[in-house]
Design goal:
Order of helices and strands: EEEHEEHEHEH
Radius of gyration: 12 Å
Largest sheet: 5 strands, mixed
Helix content: 40-55%
Strand content: 15-25%
GO molecular function: anti-sigma factor antagonist activity
Protein name: Anti-sigma factor antagonist
CATH class: Alpha Beta
Strand order of the largest sheet: 1-2-4-6-7
Pfam families: STAS
Family: Belongs to the anti-sigma-factor antagonist family.
CATH superfamily: STAS domain
Number of helices: 4
Shape: globular
Structural class: alpha/beta
InterPro entries: Anti-sigma_ant (IPR003658), STAS_dom (IPR002645), STAS_dom_sf (IPR036513)
């Protein structure tokens, strides 16, 4: 798996790998569920710096992360999304649920 995570000031940061498909989405769900329980993080930041592909499983994973963050009084943010990822998020209506920032630092400053 190419994705990794870290916790910064009650924010779970998930660095998404090159592809966010069914297999990666399931792994990210498991990682985020476990880390949210362990760390008491409220917000989830999804870093798409190296991601070139996302399918409907990725959209579903983001919706699920939104629900988890919302239960904790937190938010989901997307950073460093390229044009194909932004277009899919726009078409799927994800921008009604998540915030987008140009950089990780900008997201951390606004949470």
């Amino acid at each position: 798996m190419d994705a990794c995570y870290k916790i910064v000031r009650k924010n779970l940061i998930l660095s998404i790998g090159p592809e966010l498909d069914h297999h990666e989405a399931n792994k990210l769900r498991q990682i985020s569920d476990e880390q949210l329980r362990r760390s008491r993080a409220r917000n989830i930041i999804l870093d798409f710096s190296v991601t070139d592909f996302m399918d409907s499983a990725g959209v579903g994973m983001i919706i699920g992360r939104y629900k988890e963050a919302n239960l904790r009084g937190g938010r989901v943010c997307v950073v460093n999304a390229g044009r194909p990822i932004r277009k899919l998020m726009e078409i799927s209506g994800l921008y009604k649920l998540v915030y987008e920032y140009d950089s990780l630092d900008e997201a951390l400053d606004n949470l």
